[in-house]
């Protein structure tokens, strides 16, 4: 008699913007005060609709140690106010649904962009980097408009549109145009990026149990590779965030 296969793990990747605007990326969205009453109401509405997925675990873009320190303080009300999406979406959702746990699955990664830029400037390829930057700035302008016109739900729906996610991944692929016989700095950048995202996905896979329903709150730039990893991993199913995010 054939054994019954284990229940699948359903995973929803929610790509988000950085609500606290730390300015750590090469290109950064300008964000207003997410702790203001209007934005808090919008974030609360988003969290309530995500809760309809009934997640029993929530993963965020923080290290495991950070979450182990900060989440208990959030639950007992001693965590200082912060606009970080890890707290505003991740911690808030975990508390709302009574999740088994909120988990930090992030890792540091190597992203040698300065070396890429130096190579491009030294080999007459700086124009390629400039054009790639212009495309990224156009996408940021679209995101800025979505936040201004449609609020938090509007920008999240934009960031989690599958076609948009695929297009954003193309920005990383543009780096492969930079290089030559004496070096491949674009490959080095993407190798570090892929390694970081594969390690994040490994952390996610290793915490999951059959039948789990997991929401992953992460910077939207990670969405393509995390979605790909979930989709290609046996026993895991990808759930579309836009099936749950509020319509604007």
Automatic annotation (TrEMBL):
Organism of origin: Luteibacter anthropi
Protein name, UniProt field: TraB/GumN family protein
């Amino acid at each position: 008699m054939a054994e019954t296969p284990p229940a699948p793990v359903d995973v929803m990747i929610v790509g988000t913007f950085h609500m606290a605007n730390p300015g750590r990326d090469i290109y950064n969205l300008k964000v207003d005060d997410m702790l203001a009453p209007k934005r808090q109401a919008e974030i609360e509405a988003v969290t309530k609709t995500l809760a309809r997925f009934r997640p029993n675990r929530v993963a965020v873009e923080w290290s495991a140690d950070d979450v182990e320190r900060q989440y208990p303080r959030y639950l007992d009300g001693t965590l200082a106010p912060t606009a970080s999406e890890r707290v505003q979406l991740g911690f808030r959702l975990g508390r709302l649904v009574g999740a088994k746990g909120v988990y930090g699955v992030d890792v540091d990664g190597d992203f040698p962009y300065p070396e890429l830029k130096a190579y491009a400037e030294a080999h007459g390829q700086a124009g390629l980097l400039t054009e790639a930057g212009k495309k990224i700035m156009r996408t940021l302008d679209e995101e800025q408009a979505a936040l201004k016109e449609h609020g938090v739900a509007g920008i999240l729906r934009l960031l989690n549109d599958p076609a948009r996610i695929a297009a954003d991944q193309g920005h990383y692929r543009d780096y492969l145009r930079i290089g030559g016989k004496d070096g491949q700095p674009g490959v080095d950048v993407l190798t570090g990026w892929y390694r970081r995202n594969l390690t994040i996905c490994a952390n996610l896979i290793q915490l999951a149990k059959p039948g789990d329903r997991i929401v992953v709150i992460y910077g939207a730039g990670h969405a393509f590779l995390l979605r790909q990893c979930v989709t290609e991993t046996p026993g895991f199913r990808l759930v579309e965030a836009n099936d749950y995010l509020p319509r604007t």
